[in-house]
Write a sequence for this structure.
């Protein structure tokens, strides 16, 4: 759908190097590409990243080399790899905080909204996360108001619960990009 009103938009998609949740990455990616949105994929390194269900993607850039001002949105996929590899990543937390400060769209699905909480961008905001006590606790520790919902949009922040929410999540990001 080249020529779309979104074809000048740029999204940074972040995946764990291993164990990202395939649906939470590929379903939004397909929607974004269908709208003509430019996608850059980031992970710890540019070595192939492998999903929990076996999908692979070659990241374009390491997280520590990303210039967030080049993008309109940052979208972080979930999966068990996120908990292990992305939750503790201080550089990713700084990217999220910088994106939020510059009023870019900040979006995360499944266990990854914890990264937003750790980046300090969910204070006093409604958000959702994978329905797991440790995830909910992390969200609340970051000042979020947890709600059990498929997708929650609060200002420029989008959070989604699980793989079943992946398509709605992608659609919410597209809608938010359209209003930038």
């Amino acid at each position: 759908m080249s020529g779309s009103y979104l074809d000048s938009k740029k999204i940074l998609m972040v995946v764990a190097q291993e164990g990202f949740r395939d649906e939470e990455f590929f379903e939004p990616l397909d929607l974004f590409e269908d709208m003509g949105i430019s996608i850059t994929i980031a992970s710890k390194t540019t070595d192939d990243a492998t999903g929990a269900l076996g999908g692979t993607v070659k990241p374009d850039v390491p997280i520590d080399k990303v210039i967030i001002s080049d993008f309109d949105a940052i979208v972080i996929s979930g999966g068990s790899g996120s908990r292990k590899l992305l939750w503790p990543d201080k550089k990713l937390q700084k990217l999220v905080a910088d994106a939020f400060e510059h009023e870019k769209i900040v979006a995360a699905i499944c266990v990854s909204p914890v990264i937003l909480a750790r980046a300090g961008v969910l204070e006093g905001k409604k958000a959702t996360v994978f329905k797991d006590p440790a995830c909910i606790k992390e969200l609340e520790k970051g000042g979020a108001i947890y709600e059990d919902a498929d997708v929650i949009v609060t200002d420029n922040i989008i959070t989604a619960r699980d793989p079943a929410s992946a398509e709605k999540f992608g659609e919410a990001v597209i809608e938010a990009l359209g209003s930038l």
In short: The mean pLDDT is 96. The domain at 10-178 is CATH 3.40.50.880 (Rossmann fold). The chain has one domain: 10-178. The first strand starts at residue 10 and ends at 14.
